[in-house]
């Protein structure tokens, strides 16, 4: 009886820890979603403001911008247009401007997001709320969008590690997100295509070291093409 009671007590403790972990993860997920919604709100605000006329003057007290919105507008006006030809240089100019004017780091993602276009905007639209939590991670994902994207996502997935502060569940979700991006970028749309991709990767890894860069650059569609 005593042994059985101990088993029950241990099981209850495990269940309590599991529930606590789920509650923490859910709270964190909701917080991240709120942050992404805030970024989206700032994007929508700027687009709507541009549509209505950025320089128009509001009449009376109606439609007055909040202090945060006024600060956002002033900040956005100081940021140069996003340059798809010189993405890394653009980020350096932005960061220099942000430091010069003392913009708070937690607002950098929102400020940059309002300026994105083209491939960078596409990458942003595919990001999760978690991706927007860190400016450095956000910037890295934008920069990767202008590299050979499938290879960049493959490397990010294969090199994935548990980040400080993450639970194992959060680590698993992050790896799953990166894997899905890799698969989408490779345009994998069937079980057969996924098998081909997995075997192709192992084939390239097994090739002579001097051939690996060439095989990755060629981006063969089938294993047969790569082998012949």
From TrEMBL:
Superkingdom, taxonomy of origin: Eukaryota
InterPro entries: SCAN_dom, SCAN_sf
Annotated region described as Disordered, given as residue ranges: 1-24
A Pfam family annotated for this UniProt entry: SCAN
Domain (SCAN box): residue spans on this chain: 154-228
UniProt-listed SUPFAM superfamilies: Retrovirus capsid dimerization domain-like
UniProt cross-references to PANTHER family, sorted A to Z: RIBONUCLEASE H (PTHR46888:SF1), ZINC KNUCKLE DOMAINCONTAINING PROTEIN-RELATED (PTHR46888)
Full protein name: SCAN box domain-containing protein
Organism this protein belongs to: Enterospora canceri
Source organism phylogeny: Eukaryota, Fungi, Fungi incertae sedis, Microsporidia, Enterocytozoonidae
């Amino acid at each position: 009886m005593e042994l059985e009671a101990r088993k029950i007590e241990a099981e209850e403790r495990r269940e309590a820890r599991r529930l606590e972990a789920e509650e923490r993860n859910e709270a964190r997920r909701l917080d991240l979603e709120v942050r992404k919604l805030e970024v989206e709100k700032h994007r929508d605000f700027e687009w709507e403001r541009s549509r209505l006329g950025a320089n128009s003057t509001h009449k009376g007290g109606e439609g007055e911008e909040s202090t945060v919105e006024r600060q956002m507008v002033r900040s956005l006006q100081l940021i140069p247009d996003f340059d798809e030809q010189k993405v890394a240089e653009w980020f350096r100019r932005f960061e220099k401007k942000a430091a010069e004017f003392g913009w708070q780091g937690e607002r950098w993602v929102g400020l940059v997001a309002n300026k994105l276009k083209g491939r960078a905007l596409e990458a942003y639209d595919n990001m999760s709320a978690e991706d927007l939590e860190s400016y450095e991670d956000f910037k890295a994902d934008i920069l990767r969008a202008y590299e050979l994207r499938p290879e960049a996502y493959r490397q990010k997935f294969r090199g994935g590690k548990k980040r400080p502060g993450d639970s194992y569940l959060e680590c698993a979700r992050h790896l799953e997100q990166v894997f899905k991006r890799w698969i989408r970028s490779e345009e994998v749309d069937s079980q057969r295509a996924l098998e081909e991709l997995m075997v192709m990767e192992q084939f390239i890894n097994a090739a002579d070291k001097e051939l690996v860069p060439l095989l990755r650059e060629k981006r063969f569609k089938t294993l047969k093409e790569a082998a012949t």
